[in-house]
Amino acid sequence: MTIQFFGAARTVTGSKHLITISSGKQILLDCGLFQGINTDELNQQFGFDPARVDYMVLSHAHIDHTGLIPRLVRQGFTGPIYTTSATIDLCEVMLMDSARIQESDLKRVNERRIRRGDPELEALYDEKDVERALAQMRPVDYSKPFVICDEVTGLLTDAGHLLGSASVSLTIREDNSEKHLFFSGDIGRPNDKILRSPDTFPQADYIICESTYGDRLHEAEPDMKSHLLQIVQQTCIEGRGKLIIPAFAVDRTQELIYALDQLSSEGRLPRLPVYIDSPMSVKATDVMRDHEEDFNPDILAYVKKYGDAFQFPNLHYITDVEQSKAINNSKEPCIIIAPSGMAEAGRIKHHIKNNISKPNTTILLVGYASPNSLGGALKRGDKEVTIFGERYPVVARVAIMDSFSAHGDYREMLHFLSCQNPTRVKTVFLVHGDYDKQLIWKDHLEAAGFQHVEIPDMREKVTLI
Question: How many independent structural domains does the chain possess?
Answer without folding.
Answer: 2
